[in-house]
Specification:
The structure is a single chain. The chain is mainly α. It has two domains: 30 residues; 49 residues. It is built from four helices and no strands. The longest helix is centred in the last third of the chain and has 29 residues. The chain starts with 6 loop residues before the first helix and ends with a helix.
Length: 84
C-alpha cells in the first residue's frame, strides 16, 4: 500500500516535493494489470490474480466451455435414454 501525505494529516499545504513523492509512491505500489492470462487460466477459471484477457483468449475459453456444456448435455440425454 502506498504512503500518501495529505494536507489533513500534515496540517498545511503540501510542497511540490511532497506531491511528487505521493505520485512516486502511487506509481511504485500499483499492481501491473497487464499480465496476460494463459489459455489454461482462461479455460479453468481458477486464477485468483488479476489478469488481462485478449479477445483470442476469451474466444478460446468460450469455445472450450461451450463444448464442455454440450458434451454434458449429450451425456445427460444418453443417461436418461438408458434409464427408459
Amino acid at each position: 500500500m502506498a504512503t500518501i501525505v495529505t494536507r489533513a494529516s500534515k496540517g498545511s499545504a503540501l510542497t511540490h516535493s511532497e506531491m511528487d513523492a505521493n505520485f512516486d509512491n502511487l506509481n511504485n505500489s500499483k499492481e501491473d494489470l497487464r499480465v496476460p492470462a494463459t489459455q489454461a487460466e482462461m479455460q479453468s477459471g481458477t486464477q485468483t490474480e488479476i489478469r488481462s484477457m485478449s479477445p483470442l483468449r476469451v474466444k478460446q475459453a468460450v469455445d472450450a466451455l461451450s463444448s464442455a456444456v454440450a458434451s454434458q448435455e449429450v451425456a445427460d440425454r444418453d443417461f436418461e435414454i438408458n434409464l427408459l
